[in-house]
Amino acid sequence: MIFLKRKRLIFWLLRAYVKRWRRTILASFIIGILGFFLLRYGLNYFIPLLPFTQEEKIGVEGAYTVSELPSFITSKISTGLTTLDANYNVKPGAANKWEIKDDGKTYIFYLKDNVKFSDTTLLTSSDINYNFIDVKAQTPNKNVIVFRLKNKYSPFLVTVSRPIFKNGLTGLGAYKVQSISLNGNFVQSISLRSLSQEKNIISYYFYPTQDALKSAFVLGEVDKAIGVNETNFQDKNFGSFNNIKIDKNLNDRLLVTVFLNTKDKVLSDKRLREALSYATPDVFSEGKRNYGPFSPNLWVNETNLTNYNQDFEHANLLLKESDSYKSSKNIVLELKTLQKYEDTAQKLQKEWGKIGIKINIKSVESFPTEFQMFLGDYSVSKDPDQYILWHSEQSNNISNYRNLRIDKLLEDGRQELSVSERKKIYADFQKYLLDDPPAIFLYFPYQFTISRK
């Protein structure tokens, strides 16, 4: 009986307590639920905002869309089926091995185990959406993807080094996209968060010009400016600033080149083109001299080929043997140049003038449709295949170059699967291209990274 009375008393006390504090209890319950979901799903958002977050702000020149971000950013976010080492040799990426069948028309890739996207989902073959033209993709199971090519194409292993993404920029790399800011179709800024150290953030800010990038660094908008062409700012050099560090780098993907219009009535003369090559300086302060069409780091590059080291005596002999010189000893050529290479153009004007060739310089803002000579640049591919640049049937062959031997070598080079045989083919390609130059290859430009110590 006493037990029942005590039970009723506890029940009445609890009912009275709940009645009096029911609002507080309900509010506490709701707050608890919200707190749980906030911690469960909002932690990844709020961690970078905490005071101990370490953010590195990097400034970059250029206008980029989400689908065309620089490789130094996309390589942090994801990887491809293959990767490339410092000499652009193919190595395993998301795939640990591959097979090549049907005489180079079928590529079978076997995915690594337990490769995850930044959202923690596992990579499967159905996630790979390169969408190549004239290539059929098949996924026999979740760990295998097969590409069937319409035509044999030996650079395909390099092509699939392109990073893999799903749902926009969800990738397989060491970083995930924290936030992205757009101005129309162009990226204003993008922040990446380390997956292994969540407090580490790298934010990239994009600026339209070199001057705007340098100003942003001086004003403290960014901690580091990368890809700077030269280190002067408002008549001062960054080297004279206190607590400023300058690192010099070589951009071995951009080759500064003088393209020669081989259909021009003057420049169609091979001896004249060779004379210009021999009169070209051996040293450019703007970059590292390069006499051929390939990066010095590329596995196919040869060092024992014809180098047009400056030789005025040889240049004069070739010039005097040319039909252009015989018909008119006063040779005048127009050199169109991108504005950023005007200093280089003036140096060429001076050196070529020493063999009696007068150069008129005209500055242009973009690639000209018509020219005698054009001083610009081109992106050196990660594979030695330069079919689209020099094959006579290609629209990108801006020098109007026609050499049947070169055509055959370029055709063979992109169909040969053996690395050793490809190396022989491209050694011959370089040799014959330099013997009949459609262009004068100048240098890979230096670029600078400016940061605070």
What does this structure look like?
There is one protein chain. The chain is α+β, with helices and mostly antiparallel strands and 453 residues long. It has helices at residues 2-46, 71-77, 156-159, 210-218, 270-278, 312-321, 323-327, 342-353, 387-390, 404-413, 419-435, and strands at residues 54-61, 82-84, 90-92, 95-101, 106-111, 135-141, 144-149, 175-183, 186-194, 200-207, 224-228, 232-233, 236-237, 244-250, 254-260, 287-289, 331-338, 357-364, 373-379, 439-452. Strands 1, 8, 9, 10, 11, 14, 15, 16, 17, 18, 19 and 20 form a twelve-stranded mixed sheet that branches. A four-stranded antiparallel sheet has the order 4-5-7-6, with no helix packed on it. Helix 5 packs antiparallel against helix 6 (312-321) and helix 10 (404-413) packs antiparallel against helix 11 (419-435). The chain is flat, with a radius of gyration of 31 Å. The mean pLDDT is 90.
Give the count of helical stretches.
11
Which class do the helix and strand fractions yield? Answer: alpha+beta
The largest sheet is: 12 strands, mixed
CATH class of the largest domain: Alpha Beta
Number of domains: 3
What is the level-2 CATH architecture name of the largest domain?
Answer: Roll
Task: Identify low-pLDDT runs.
Answer: none
Chain-averaged pLDDT:
90
Instruction: Give the strand content.
Output: 25-35%
At the fourth CATH level, what is the homologous superfamily of the largest domain?
A: Dipeptide-binding Protein, Domain 3
Q: Name the overall outline.
A: flat
CATH topology of the largest domain: Dipeptide-binding Protein, domain 3
